[in-house]
């Protein structure tokens, strides 16, 4: 059999001719089966006559059609002139519309069944794909709009119908049915093409129909082709949208690099400011790591990809150091070769739930390269990797749910033989329950300069006095914004923008950014849209309590229009409520009946938003814990490496009190609890890091009201809102080409900078210190979309994650496709100050102005008199905003005095006094640019 593969698609073909016994298609990609169709023509004619004569018979016939049993929604097929019937469970206001292939809208008939459901009946008038929209209180029900294909009633045609022709889920069989009744003899051919190879199976139902199933292993659009007698049947090819709904992914990376010692002596201080790159004979240039070798010399660490002489460049501030560039020779046995990796073990064929499924990987004869493993399936499988004494690796994975899992195993960025592997996992699951809602989000109107702007958020249980907000314009000007409480717990930030572009809105509670802050707010048309621009935050994404609504906010304003899907998965059934605030934001609450670990998934247009899925522990009902109170909690920041404390009152509650502090690095430390009076306890903690700490206070294992508490440790100068990223590396890039970007941390304080790149391939990446912050360099190996996440002290900077489009260069592929890859670098930064001054917070705005539009007039521009006030005027009304500079220099130096008066609306009056004869030079600048005529020559 032949597997048809190219860069973007895999195809699977099955040919069947109607006469052999039913069987499953072989594992080969193409199977030929000889069969002849012997369906009796007049039986079909009799059945059609009955349908035409009896409306009741129409309903019975449709409901017993193969592939439609037990399915209350349309099975993606219909017939013109025959009424289709569906059942929808309903308890409130409902409506339904059908969009016909011509684009016109039609109304089906809705009947109340008086049992909590309604029936939807429709008499199709056109052939082709229809869309059925079923709405509940104005919102689409789950799965709506539904697509179904309507064909004509005449016999002799081969038709196909079923959900697998329009949609499906990765790792789950997608099914459809092919009807050949009355079509005569002929060969039936099926093919599935898409992002992954899809194994096809089929079964002859012995009634003129064939049931077909295919297994997609990657999300994306799949093309299903059905031919009869070498001709496409009606509707073929079909396009099915396969989503990764409910799929969980885990990954691990191990491996080895080649290390080469460089000549010369370099101090540790110099090492921080150095960066290195290596260029292969083909021209591929990648960043490489500098490290201190055991000998004390400096060495480079890299993954060799080609045989031959490589050039290593080591630079400081863009200039080569002594002896750079260096030459390094790579021989054939050092280049990583995925084909030489040996993989053994049955765990790549089948596995068991709740057990370690082990396989071995031998890379000893495969050269240098990184080994990356990802496992995707119904559960997030725990992965362990251990070194064996013989130099091989044992890798184990432990899934918790049965089903199909996809295992991608790469060495040196190429698949090993057999990868990706499809593994069938059997056994008992955890009986986790999943609830999902879906809502359509409309794009908000474009915001204009000078209009009233509003950003809303829900934060119950606080006082507005502790809230503050600022707005930073694209030009760098920061102003305070007004916060208004709209209703109990719902707040709005109001401001009036003065320029177009991306603004930064910072909202703080007790001087700490609220979840989601700093926010991006675009004035004018949106430059980009998509799931990466959706934000979510709130206590319901961090912790929860059994039986109590867990609330959080979702902001979709910057992402444009689309579909927002919210899912909650865990030990119990979940009730989800959604409220649209009609301003590009919404609030969500969910209630669970059992404690435990829950996963909150947020998708926008079928793609996870940043940080989704969120893992939330829902604690048992609070019980007596609600009696406890906190007292004397620090009102401001505390210092690192110094003890701090607060009080807890039990108020008669009986049980055990415990507390811990979680640092920004996620290190946990126990708090010291001491009884100081009846029912009053002192809780002492010792923070060891700067940044936002979380203090968890529990009573009988349950959080007390308000826990976990957030507290700032260290100086109040670390602010992610002050960090900005720019450069070519955030735009369009090319495979195999090294590109960079600058992350400006001036005035943001010292903190932890974390840069992560997710995309089709791993990227070689490094980070070096520069004057204004840090330079990040990376080289992508495959074309596609990459997402760069930049966090400062665990918080996204404005614009993060950034969407990067990478295009390929014709020629040999530098890596193989197969699942998302992640690369990251983390740097502990030092405090930096902008060139504009030594004081943090003084940043010169970026003015938008045009000096050529300034008009000047007055005698003082040409001739002046000693000892008298000489005058001229300037009109900068059309020149934008900037700073006006005026200077006069004569034969013996500057003039005695210059006086500038702003008379309003960028109109200026300038007076100056001179006491010596001669020729003077008069300079007038608007920012850095001379106005027309400047410098002027003035005779005194």
Automatic annotation (TrEMBL):
<keyword id="KW-0206">Cytoskeleton</keyword>
<dbReference type="InterPro" id="IPR017868">
    <property type="entry name" value="Filamin/ABP280_repeat-like"/>
</dbReference>
<protein>
    <submittedName>
        <fullName>Putative actin-binding cytoskeleton protein filamin</fullName>
    </submittedName>
</protein>
<feature type="repeat" description="Filamin">
    <location>
        <begin position="846"/>
        <end position="940"/>
    </location>
</feature>
<keyword id="KW-0963">Cytoplasm</keyword>
<feature type="region of interest" description="Disordered">
    <location>
        <begin position="1"/>
        <end position="115"/>
    </location>
</feature>
<dbReference type="InterPro" id="IPR001298">
    <property type="entry name" value="Filamin/ABP280_rpt"/>
</dbReference>
<feature type="compositionally biased region" description="Basic and acidic residues">
    <location>
        <begin position="15"/>
        <end position="32"/>
    </location>
</feature>
<keyword id="KW-0009">Actin-binding</keyword>
<feature type="repeat" description="Filamin">
    <location>
        <begin position="98"/>
        <end position="150"/>
    </location>
</feature>
<feature type="repeat" description="Filamin">
    <location>
        <begin position="423"/>
        <end position="523"/>
    </location>
</feature>
<dbReference type="Pfam" id="PF00630">
    <property type="entry name" value="Filamin"/>
</dbReference>
<feature type="compositionally biased region" description="Polar residues">
    <location>
        <begin position="33"/>
        <end position="45"/>
    </location>
</feature>
<dbReference type="InterPro" id="IPR044801">
    <property type="entry name" value="Filamin"/>
</dbReference>
<dbReference type="GO" id="GO:0051015">
    <property type="term" value="F:actin filament binding"/>
</dbReference>
<dbReference type="InterPro" id="IPR013783">
    <property type="entry name" value="Ig-like_fold"/>
</dbReference>
<feature type="repeat" description="Filamin">
    <location>
        <begin position="240"/>
        <end position="330"/>
    </location>
</feature>
<dbReference type="GO" id="GO:0030036">
    <property type="term" value="P:actin cytoskeleton organization"/>
</dbReference>
<feature type="compositionally biased region" description="Polar residues">
    <location>
        <begin position="1"/>
        <end position="14"/>
    </location>
</feature>
<feature type="repeat" description="Filamin">
    <location>
        <begin position="715"/>
        <end position="806"/>
    </location>
</feature>
<feature type="repeat" description="Filamin">
    <location>
        <begin position="150"/>
        <end position="242"/>
    </location>
</feature>
<feature type="repeat" description="Filamin">
    <location>
        <begin position="333"/>
        <end position="425"/>
    </location>
</feature>
<feature type="repeat" description="Filamin">
    <location>
        <begin position="620"/>
        <end position="713"/>
    </location>
</feature>
<comment type="similarity">
    <text>Belongs to the filamin family.</text>
</comment>
<keyword id="KW-0677">Repeat</keyword>
<feature type="compositionally biased region" description="Basic and acidic residues">
    <location>
        <begin position="104"/>
        <end position="115"/>
    </location>
</feature>
<dbReference type="GO" id="GO:0005856">
    <property type="term" value="C:cytoskeleton"/>
</dbReference>
<dbReference type="InterPro" id="IPR014756">
    <property type="entry name" value="Ig_E-set"/>
</dbReference>
<feature type="repeat" description="Filamin">
    <location>
        <begin position="526"/>
        <end position="618"/>
    </location>
</feature>
<feature type="compositionally biased region" description="Basic and acidic residues">
    <location>
        <begin position="82"/>
        <end position="97"/>
    </location>
</feature>
